[in-house]
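User: Please run a holo structure prediction.
Assistant: Happy to. Please share the sequence and the ligand.
User: Here you go; the ligand is calcium ion.
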Amino acid sequence: MKQLITTLFSFIISALLFAQSPNYQGVANELSDNSIFKKNMEKKLVFIDHDGGIDDLLSQLLLLTMDDVELIGVNVTPADCFIEPAVESSYKILQLFKRTDIPIGRGDLHGVNAFPSDWRARPDVVNALPMFINLDDIDTYALPNAVDLYIERLLAADKPVTILMTGPCSNLVGAMKKNPKIRAKIEQVVWMGGAFKTQGNVQTYQHNGSAEWNAFWDPQSSKELFALELPLVCIPLDVTNHVPVNKDFLSRLAFQSDKTLSNLAGQLWALTTDTIPGYEYTYFMWDVLATSFISISAHFTVEEVKATVSKHPPNAGQTLLTPDGYTLKIATDVNKENFYTYILKQLKTF
Ligand code: AGV
Ligand code: CA
C-alpha cells in the first residue's frame, strides 16, 4: 500500500513538472543535439601526410577506425612510393570506410635523396589485392596539390588540427612558407622521423648510416621543420625499434581475420616480410606506432630535446642532439603490449 502511494505521488510530481515545461521536446532535443555537438567537439581533427608505404596505408586505415578522430585530409608524398598507385591505394581505403568525401592531395615536391625503386613500387601490389582490385580508381592529376590542400584544410578548420606525417615533411614546410597563417591552426605535429640516440636506417652511397629515411629524403626540409619550432613530437627509430612486425603479432591478427580490416591488414603486412633490399630483414611498426600516438599517447615516454638536422654527406638527414639546436619532443619508449593490443582492437572495427 505504502509503495503504491509513493509511486502515485512520484507520478503526479513528474506529470506536474512535465506540464510546467511546455518546451519539453525542445529541451530533450537540445540535450541530444548538445551531446552530438559535444561528441564532435571532442573529436581531434587530424590531417595525414603519408608516403604510400605499406605501413603508411595501414596508418591511414587505422586513423579511420578511431572514434576520437575526424580525418580532414590526406596528402601523399612521392617518397616511399610512386605517386599514382599510392594515391589510388589511399582512395581505395577511403572507399572501404565510405569516406570518399575526405580530400586527397598530390605531393609534387621531390627530395634530393630518392627511395629505392623496389620499395616505391609496393602499392601496385596493394591495388591488386582482392579487397581493392574492383574498387574505383581516381584521376591523380585532377587532385589538388598537397601544399595547397594543407593550406585550404587548415584555414577552413574550426579548431587547431593535429598533423600526422608518416613520410618526409616537405609538403608541410612548403605550406608554412606559402602561408605562415596556418601556424595558428596547428595543434600538434606528429612525425615518424629521425634517429636520435640510435643508428639510422639509411644504407646507401655517401652515407654513414646515421640517418632515418624520412629525414634523409629531403634533409633541407627536415632541418627547416625543426627550425619552425612547431609543437612537434617525433616518433623516431629510437622508439619504433621496440615494435617490429613479428610473427607473434601476425599470428594474433590472423586469429581475428574474420574481420575485414584484420584480414586486409594481415595481407598488407605479409607483403613486408620480404623487405627489399636484403640488408634489412625486419619491418617495423614505424608509421603505425606514430599513428597510435594520436590516440594512446599516454602509453609513450616522451622527452623534450634540442636538435638539428645535418644537410650534407656523410650524414645528411641525421637528427643531431645539440644544446644550440631547436626545441622539439621525441618519443623514446612505448608500452609494447598495450600498443599491439590497441592495434588488434582497432582492426576489429569491421
Ligand atoms: O624509415 C621508416 C620509414 C617509415 O615511414 N619508411 C618506412 C616507413 O613507412 C622508410 C623505410 C625504411 N626502411 C624501409 C622503408 C624498408 N625496408 N622498406 C620500405 N620502406
Ligand atoms: Ca612512411
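Residues 12-34 have pLDDT under 50 and may be disordered.
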